[in-house]
Amino acid sequence: MANRSVEYWYPTAAYLYVLHLDGPALAWEYLRRNPGYRLDWLHHRRRPEVAQRWGLRVFEDPALDARDTHPAWFPDHEALVLLYPDADPPPDALVFGLWHLPGRKHLVHDGRRLVLVAHWPGCCLRFALAPGLEDGMACVYAVRACRKPCTRYRAFAAELDRLDRLTAAEVTPPATRPRPVATALLELHTLQALDATLAGASLREVAEGLFGADAVTADWFSDGSLRSRVRRLVRRGQMLMGGGYRRLAQLE
Prior knowledge:
- Strand 2 and strand 3 (about 115-120) form a beta hairpin.
- The chain has helices at about 25-30, 35-40, 150-170, 180-200, 205-210, 215-220, 225-250, and strands at about 80-85, 105-110, 115-120, 125-130, 140.
- It contains seven helices and five strands, in the order H-H-E-E-E-E-E-H-H-H-H-H.
- Helices cover about 35% and strands about 10% of the residues.
- The radius of gyration is 21 Å and the shape is elongated.
- It is α+β, with helices and mostly antiparallel strands.
- Strands 2-3-4-1-5 form a five-stranded mixed β-sheet.
- It has a domain at about 80-170.
């Protein structure tokens, strides 16, 4: 048996950043592992239009994880906040202040416009900036019309509520973070299991990397719960990599 403990996927600590990713960022983590996408990336300069086949406006380098790149999904995520200059602002109009937004900020051009991504412990806000909008200018929020507007409006309002709470809060990041929820741990284990299988690891080797050799020694049976759990993680990762990531990015 190969010594898998020296391989990149084995230390769970390398995946801890996954615990703080939202849906669009998780979608990128699965897409960038897709062999078909990685092949298209090699030829993306000759065929940039192929990006939309993967649900992207423009290609992104699959070597970059969600901490270093912010893919522009097509169509937009429902929670994307659209900002436009206010043509007739009242005296107490809200103004756009880039540096007043909390968190770590990134500006990304998606081929048609600027998108501002603001990270804060436990959340990520995305804004599409209309041409002509400048720092300190009165602005308005917009949401696209749709056949079932209530769902989109609720997502839109939830993002604005989060922004209001963050803006009003102290800007110093908290010293501690809440315990990861079960869904976040599921994504961490799924991505680690997916990387392991893509590297050629067996189910038993995957289990040892995720849960430790002692747990595998104690509970590795043909019909055991641990073996079934690892098998489900691998299947889930392959499903999300193969196209299920679109649900995470709200492309369908």
